Amino acid sequence: MALWSETLEDRTLLSVDLSVIDINESGAPVYDRTAVVGNKLYYRDVDPRYGLELHVLDTTTGVASLVVDINPGLDDSNVGDYGGFTVVGNNLYFTAYDAIHGYELRWIDTTETTPALHTLDVHSGSLGSYAGLYGGFVAVGNTLYFTASELTIGYELRWIDITNASPILHTLDIHSGGASSFAGEAGGFTVVGTNLYFSAYDSAGHELRWIDTAEETPTLHTLDLYSGSGSSNPGLFGGVKAVGENLYFVAQDATTGRELRWIDTTETVPAIHTVETSVGAASSDAGEYGGFIVVGERLYFSASDSTNGHELRWIDTTELAPVMNTLDIEIGSGSSYSGQYGGFVAVGNDLYFTADDSTNGTKLRRVDTTESTPVVQTIGNSGLAGVYGGFNIVDRKLYFTARDTLGYELRWIDTTEETPVVSTLDIYVGGLSSYAGRYGGFTAVGGKLCFTAHDSTSQYELRWIDTVETTPILHTLDIFSGPGYSYPGQYSGFTALAERLYFGAQDSITGLELRWIDTTELYPVVHTLDVNAGGSSSNAGGSGGFATVGNKLYFTAGDSNNGFELRWVDTNETTPMLHTVDIFAGNGSSYA
Q: In the 3-class helix/strand/coil scheme, how is 120-189 assigned residue by residue?
């Protein structure tokens, strides 16, 4: 493995293919295949000598190395394929394959200089247990819970004491015998207090279950919502949401269909409460548009019934018997499809969303959540608010793209106004559309709102406004000068790190490369990291995305000398040096 650096020139151009992974520096697992523990970045990578295995990058030294060759030789261990990576204390847990054990739970102590690999052989022999396949891994105190399979029991809930150097495997055989319960398959695992909630299957169907993790030998509790062998599939649509001590989820039964349910987790034998929107066996599909949002003590969502159609609903989560409240925006049985575009966003006590009615069309709406009987307020005449880039709050202003006779353009309102006036920035003058936020959405850095937009002069280019200005001036960074398109942020948007904005864009000179601007500058200059020198593209971030660890930005990029390899820059440097970890020595590619 060769490590080298080169100084890159500064350019006032830009271009790149950007995928962003904003890693949590606290050490929590991030996404599916990456984890940060202290100053170390763990990831899976292909090595020409070892295959696809677990690697680590020491961000203090810039040295990347193989952690352990789990499946010896060139064969792959496919580390992290099932359940990703989970960090608990100093240990990193994951599933990986070898020819002796198959896919099994493994872990390492990240404090060890040369970590020893530990294996929990749940399914003895080479077949593997596929630990973490359903619901991943979840830690409660010193116990790690997961679903795994073995020949005599099937896919069932398992747990180990992670403080034990040689942990004993515990099993809760929910679907007795060799059949499987598939614990955690629908909605994963949710922890409330010491209770672990999940869905699992047995002869009673796929139902909500829970155990008290404080018990040495936990008892399985079941809420058989769909009585008999039918399945309610709790959490399959919209997951499971905890609000205080209550647990909310959508589940199905033969009588009421697919409706919102809740339980009080403090009850020894919790009663299932149903908030029935659509009377009878028809389903309301609660949360289908915009999901669920909590404002104060109310839970808001959209749901359907035959009387009002698909409309905004809410319940007071403090009520013992919550009453379903409906805001019938499209009067009658027609539907407003509240939250369909941009979802729901709360600013103080106000809830903003898009909804449709036959009088106004699909417009931005606002309700005061403190009102007992809220009145819906229609804001402005522009339609399909939030369709491109959603809703974005900067201070007390709400920014979004919407359509009117000027086309799809950037709009905003001052949410402190009693009757908000919609302001418009007409970027593509003449009734044509700029489609602001279509590529990469909107990103606020300091007092600037950055986004991509289109016009006849500059095409799709990077734009920004000063959000402090009453009448903001549009600033354009014409990266691909002339009528060409740079498409900044098209590939996974924009990343803000300190006061810099990183993104990908294209030009005719350097191709598709990583760019950035300093947002503190009055007139920002676009800087370019020309990884693949000349007009060829490095496609920075195209394989594996981007990761930030401290002040360092990590990504994969290609050039003719090293192929697609792991790269990084120190974002504190005025003229950052590009560092390359040449895992597949020579011009071969590791596709880190």
A: ECCCCCCCCCCCCCCCCEEEECCEEEEEECCCCCCCEEEEEECCCCCCCCEEECCCCCCCCCCCCCCCCE
* C-alpha closest to that of 369 among 329, 412, 312: 312
Residue 491 has a pLDDT of 65
Handedness of CA 377, 380, 382, 388 (dihedral sign): negative
Residue 108 · residue 35 · CB < 8 Å:
no
User: What is the distance between the alpha carbons of residues 546 and 492, in angstroms, rounded to a whole number?
Assistant: 10
Q: Which alpha helices (DSSP H) does 311-457 contain, by range?
A: none
Q: Which band of pLDDT confidence, cut at 50, 70 and 90, is reported for residue 543?
A: low
Give residue-wise pLDDT tens across range 246-280: 988 888 888 888 889 889 999 888 888 888 888 87
Residue linked to tokens 């319940």: 315
Query: Between these two residues, 586 and 493, which has the higher pLDDT value?
Result: 586
CB 368 within 8 A of CB 325: no
Q: How far apart are the first and last CA of the chain?
A: 13
Contact 88, 77 (CB under 8 A): no
When pLDDT is cut at 50, 70 and 90, the band that residue 108 belongs to is: very high
Q: Sketch the domain layout of the chain as residue ranges.
A: 1-19+495-592
Q: What is the pLDDT of residue 406?
A: 94
What the block records as the tokens of 513 is 């490369």
Q: Look at strands 563-570 and 91-98 and give their pairing.
A: unpaired
Nearest-angstrom CA–CA distance, 423 and 431 = 16
Residues 517-532 pLDDT 10s? 888 888 888 888 899 8
d(CA 46, CA 167): 31
DSSP 392: E
Q: Which residues 6+ apart lie within 8 Å of 573 measured at CB?
A: none
**Residue among 478, 453, 476, 446 at smallest CA distance from 15:** 478
Q: Distance of CA 209 to CAs 152, 236, 554, Å? A: 22, 14, 41
Only one residue has tokens 């993790």, namely 213
CA 403 centroid distance within chain: 28
Q: The pTM is what?
A: 0.59
**What is the rounded distance in angstroms from the CA atom of residue 272 to the CA atom of residue 264?**
8
pLDDT in tens, 369-405: 999 889 999 999 898 988 888 899 988 999 999 999 9
DSSP state of 460: S
Q: What is the pLDDT of residues 476-491, one digit of tens each?
A: 888 887 777 877 777 6
Q: What whole-number distance in Å separates Cα of residue 448 and Cα of residue 333?
A: 43
What are the tokens at 138? 């979840």
Using left for φ > 0, alpha for ψ between -120 and 50, and beta otherwise, residue 522 falls in alpha
DSSP state of 507: E
Q: Quick one: average pLDDT of 306-311?
A: 92
